[in-house]
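Comment on the following before class.
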Amino acid sequence: MTDHQDVSLDWMSGDQDELRPPTDLRPEVPHPARMYDYYLGGKDNFPADREAAEKVLGLSPLVRISAQANRSFLQRAVRELAAGQGIKQFLDIGTGIPTSGNTHEIAQQVYPDAKVAYLDNDPIVLVHSRALLAAAGAGNATVVQADLRDPAAILEDPEVRKVIDFDQPVALLLFAVLHFIDDADDPWAIVRTLVDALPAGSFLAVSHGTADFSTPEQAAKGPAVYKTATAQLTMRPRADVLRFFEGLELLEPGLVTAPAWRPDEAPKPTDAETAIWAGVARKA
């Protein structure tokens, strides 16, 4: 994707009664969701996104491996939540640009009537997600524009409440999004607000970038690239990521690097190659 025309054509490919055109894609400003799409080999990104992503890859080519490991963790976690824990409702915040093996696809393999509310604050994500859902006829899923920094608005959003019944267990998915919330915005309070609104038997799944396995130079330069992006990057140590799960029961194997969370096969990358902490926990 290289210009506004491509974006508009993709929007027109969906059900126009269900889709809304993009408002401000800001193609000249790198966006983390589009950069992540580039790491995964996608095409839904602009030159500014690719330039910024290449700078990050220049600092650590293993960023692409980490992105792939994060995506794989998402799929395993959703499968476990549905098949292993009986969860039929998913609140997926900061979903990113659609890629094969989305939350609703995994969950609905287990429960055809599983419900998913996708939320993101990026217009390009909304365009492609709505087109994907319209084409797939995923009637139990919706896409909502929302900002994670306003959890109360998310919980009260009428579109979210059309899909999610907050009186029944919900899986709250926060994959590779909390590291775009500054400490000043208190991401731990944001997560607590969301979790407090969920009934017992609900789950929290989190993946979060870390510099625990980086050199000091890498730890400083990586986030610096994101200074020109629409969201800043805050890598956190394991202890800070663990705080998101306070008061919850972590499923085995606890908070581990993404490839080590219930892998389908023995992980190949080392910790340093997948600098993402990952965990799933239950609300008693």
User: Anything to note?
Assistant: The beta strands are 89-93, 115-120, 141-145, 171-175, 203-209, 249-250, 256-257, 276-282.
